[in-house]
Amino acid sequence: MEIKKLISFIEESEKLKSVVRTAWTSDGRRESTAEHSWRLALFAGVLSDSFPELDLSKILLMSLIHDIGEIYEGDISAASCPDKRAKYAAEYQAAQSVFAILPEPQAGRLMDIWMEYNDNSTPEAKLVKALDKAETIIQHNQGNNPPDFDYQFNLEYGKEYFQSDDRLKPLRSMIDEKTRQRMAIGRPGF
Fold it and tell me: 0.90 cut: is pTM over it?
């Protein structure tokens, strides 16, 4: 085990604690990418009993590293309609740089898992993609957001990721209903 490289990787990944997202916590502070990734992993872990055929270890690791590519350039909100190719290229470069701190074969394994998520190429990636969108919408509904926050965006955001598995459809229906409730009252209340 190469402790020095592992510690260097953990030190570098600390930067995700300072990357803020366009989501607000229930107390009105902007959420960090690290907080989002942690809650996504927690969400995936508690939901994993419904997906016993999937690799839980991979799901949890994928959840924790899926946004590592935001470490240097920050989070770019989907609502801003970014150029997807440019965003992917920047995040790919960042992920490669961060994972390269680790020894092989670990660096390659994490890069493969990151790419699997981004390519949405396995059942584990499909689940994490859907839960990533769900966690974001839940945070939007739960957050103490600015008065001009666009809740309507949530109703279409990532909807396609919930269509591949019937176990995800009730989850999407519930978070859409919570979004509609939030739009009706306009204040925190998840």
Answer: yes
Q: What is the signed CA dihedral for 156, 162, 167, 173, rounded to 10 degrees?
A: 0
Using one digit for the tens of pLDDT, what is the confidence trace for 118-159? 999 999 999 999 999 999 999 999 999 998 888 999 999 999
Q: What is the CATH number of domain 3-185?
A: 1.10.3210.10
The amino acid sitting at 67 is: D
DSSP state of 120: T
Distance of CA 6 to the CA centre of its chain: 23
Q: What sign does the dihedral 112-114-117-123 (CA atoms) show?
A: positive
Count other Cβ atoms within 10 Å, centred on residue 23.
23
Cα separations (Å) of 47 from 42, 55, 65, 154, 167? 9, 13, 18, 21, 10
What integer pLDDT is reported at residue 189 of this predicted model? 46
What residue spans define the domains of the chain?
3-185
